[in-house]
């Protein structure tokens, strides 16, 4: 009896400990001082340079890091801040990091804003050990110069360290990108449905989007082994991204989210799906515009197995879409579904834009013989 009581007590203690660990996991939204509005003490600043390793509340820095106020100038260039009044700038080989409590084994997406300041080929190395990726930020997709980027990872421990590092491409030690508005979101692994062989075909599961920013979130190219913020969709490219849109600020064909192919033929949105060689399939999707002023001839090219289809859409830049379909026969046990914009498009302000893809579905159009006999 005593042994059973001791076992029950240990079980309850384990449950309470588990609940306590879950309670400490950070909620979706801004990281603690993720917008850098909690400022360093004046004694920890030399002009704009932050001199203390722990001077910025909730963050740890290394190297040449500056604390930048909205409207500050770099030469003749005005440095805007996308969220609040302050941001940070990482000089060459500088980094900023924060320790975060998470749920071990869960997937997360980090969203943050970045702006290039003085180097054409600026990059950021984002790490949550053991995962790490270089995000290219040389292409600017907004007229303000600020873009929001996303990056996803699996939490290997209940506490991890998010590190953002500027590997440096300029000789000037102070030269580097501006950073602001760090947020996090727990990603729910998408599931297939009876009516769709593709997962997350409506793109409803994706990175955190800021309610007060209207420029969407970029999903950058990653290695195929990495976990995507749009999982299981991947972006294949050398340096270009696709843009994740919300219905609060854009025209979305269905639901609350969609993807804009903003990089022309330089990036592809892809997903691999299990198929049976020799069986016929039908791929359907919506193609249109985001209502963001991207006017003109927009077109999406879709590929699967040996089949392809081009769906054209004449945009007025005010929203709208059309449906496209591709019928093909599988030639392998896995088929890669690919979407790409067929041309480069720009808005009146000179920023890149492109066709919107949404509501993607894939079905087998012929049932297996054994199933037909059972019916």
UniProtKB/TrEMBL annotation:
InterPro entries: DGR2-like_dom, Galactose-bd-like_sf, Pectin_Meth_Modulator
Gene3D superfamilies: Galactose-binding domain-like
DUF642 domain residues: 29-185, 197-362
Pfam families: DUF642
Subcellular location: Secreted, Cell wall
Protein name: DUF642 domain-containing protein
Keywords: Cell wall, Glycoprotein, Secreted, Signal
Signal peptide: 1-22
Main localization (coarse): secreted
Domain of life, per lineage: Eukaryota
SUPFAM superfamilies assigned to the protein according to its UniProt record, in alphabetical order: Galactose-binding domain-like
